Amino acid sequence: MRYRRLGYIVPIALACLVAGLSGCSERNNSPKNQAADGKTTITLWWNVAEGTEDDPRSAGWYRLINTYMKKHPDIRIKTQSLPYEQLKQKLTNSLMAGNPPDVVSGLNSWLSDLYRMDALP
Predict the structure, then answer these.
(1) Rounded to an integer, what distance in angstroms lies between the CA atom of residue 40 and that of residue 35?
(2) Which pTM was predicted?
(3) Of 7, 15, 92, 102, which residue is most buried, by most CB within 10 angstroms?
(4) CB-based contacts of 63: which residues, under 8 Å, 6+ apart?
């Protein structure tokens, strides 16, 4: 029952996040994110396990992404799933190098560390 309730909330939250970021972000309109076929690629780093639509832990996320891409054929969402420690390290390195992902889903406890390192845009 718990997964069932989260199954509605989590996809809606992701849809709002992706829609908002894809519509407002300057980075998404840059040539860096434009493929030769004219599609805009949104890079998403997160800790959601790669899974199938039958896996209750990740099914809603991937169904939502696939549905969004079908409704918006000019947008491609490229996901990369990493354990939290690797995700934090990769995010820190990419921020310091000036090449962060478009969207990242991490832990709020990272913000103070990233702020102290002056790694936030």
Answers:
(1) 6
(2) 0.66
(3) 102
(4) 11, 53
